Amino acid sequence: MSEEDGSGGSSSKRRGRVRRRLVGMLKKDYHDRINVLVEAPQSNNPEDDEEQKFIILEQTKYSLDTPSYAIIGGIIEPKEEATLAAKREVNEELNISCNNWISLGKYRTDVNRGMGYVSMVMHVM
To answer: Has this prediction a pTM greater than 0.70?
Structure first.
């Protein structure tokens, strides 16, 4: 007998259905991501230091009063390889093509829900 018919039985089946529905909604809303560290072009000016430099973007976020800064990144589309997502994001955000990639690894970003990864790659000139 179930709780719904007034007999005081367990409602664990109902809780299980609700839990599965919630987990399904969370998974649909969570995508693997890509972050790309893009090396800045070398300067031809001999007075510039030789330190390796990378491109970052200045961005405006609705919850911040001041600009913030980030490396290139975005969502990996379903069935898309991380390197292809990196190429796409760099092209979309910087309008440049990149061919030299170094993988920096793949890391879990949402361990509490057991899903979500970020793949890190670096483009070198």
So the answer is: no
Tell which residue, 15, 36, 20, 28, has the closest CA to residue 115: 28
Structure confidence at residue 122 (pLDDT): 83
Residues 6+ apart with CB under 8 A from 34: 73, 74, 75, 76, 82, 85, 86, 89, 118, 119, 120, 121
pLDDT in tens, 59-72: 888 888 999 999 99
7 pLDDT exceeds 50? Answer: no
Task: Determine the topology of domain 31-123 in CATH.
Answer: Nucleoside Triphosphate Pyrophosphohydrolase (3.90.79)
Please tell me whether residue 34 adopts helix, strand or coil conformation.
strand
Residue-range domain boundaries for the chain: 1-30, 31-123
Question: Is residue 23 classed as helix, strand or coil in its secondary structure?
Answer: helix
HSE toward the beta carbon, residue 49, CA cutoff 13 A? 3
Mean residue pLDDT across the chain: 79
Q: How, if at all, do strands 115-123 and 33-39 pair?
A: parallel
Q: Give the DSSP letter of residue 33.
A: E
